[in-house]
Amino acid sequence: MKDSIQPYAWLGAAGVYRSKLDGAANGEQSLTPLYANPFPEAASLAARDVLTERRRQIEQEQWCPEHDDKYTHGQLASAAASYATSAYWHAIGHDTYEPPPRWPWSESNWKPTTARRDLVKAGALILAEIERLDRMESGKREAGHA
Questions:
Q1: b/e for 2-41, b at 16 or more Cβ within 10 A?
Q2: Which residue has the higher pLDDT, 41 or 19?
Q3: Reported pTM
């Protein structure tokens, strides 16, 4: 489905571009397509929320692939586990204001809300880590190291 839909913009390290050509003209080495409706028709509300959160992370927080690629020591997976832990803490009535010890970044970046929202954040971070691992593997194959 995604192949038949044209992206509405392209995300690069320096920002969002209206066309891939604009990004390339600005010297972008890698551009990520942004789609207006990236969801398969059969996707559940939960799946849509995870994809929407990932898109928000990219578009609003500028956590683009180049940014994520800097986290080579499991930080994205650890952050996802932290938000999943927060959802568990909600379930047992534990305070979620302090991040778990595995939280990889500063405490000011810890923003728990509700159990469901924290699980959505965890899912989006897991997706970011899987995408990062796929890019690493793809890069190895392209370099002939696989």
A1: eeeeebebbbbbeebbeeeeebeeeebeebbebeeebeee
A2: 19
A3: 0.71
